Structure formats: structure tokens, C-alpha cells
Amino acid sequence: MHEEKSNFMETIDSIRSAEQEADKIVKEAKEKADEILRKAKENISKMKTETEENCVSLKNSRLQNGRSAIEKEVESVIKKARQEADGLKSKKLLDKELSDILKSILE
Question: Would you kindly state where each structural domain of the chain is located, as residue ranges?
Fold first, then answer.
């Protein structure tokens, strides 16, 4: 009977040892999984930040390009307006000169 008890105790010890080893393996696996999850979250956060920064940079670049195009267009319109104003001034002067000549002839 003592031998049966000894075999029984060995079996129990063996089972306990196996359970402890299984618990250890499960714990290590959970720790590895948590580490992988943490790194994945960090990478996602980093990628999100980089993407947002790239979007802002692209938006700013497009705004600058649009601003430059608008400024060129405004400069072109102002140049045309000045040319037309100069043309109108010279026409007024010409009209005045013709009027003065006509008045002098008619007098």
C-alpha cells in the first residue's frame, strides 16, 4: 500500500509539475501576445501621425500653388487694366488735342 501511495504521489507531483509548466507556457504566450499588440498599436499610432502630417503638407503645398496661380492671374488683370487705362488717357489727350485744333480752326 505504501508503494501504491508513493506511485500515486509521484503521479500527482507529475501532474502538478505539468500544470505548472502549462501555466508558465500560457503566461509567456500571453506576455508575448501583449507585447506584439502593444508594438502594433504603437506602429499604427506612428503611421497615423505620419499620414496626418503628409496630408497637412500636401494640403499646404496645394494651397501655395493655388495662391501663386491666383496672384499671377491678379497681376495679369492689373497689367491689362493699366494698359487700358493708359490707352484711355492717350485717347482723352488725343480727343482734347483734336478738340483744341478744331476750336482754333473754327475761331
Answer: 1-78
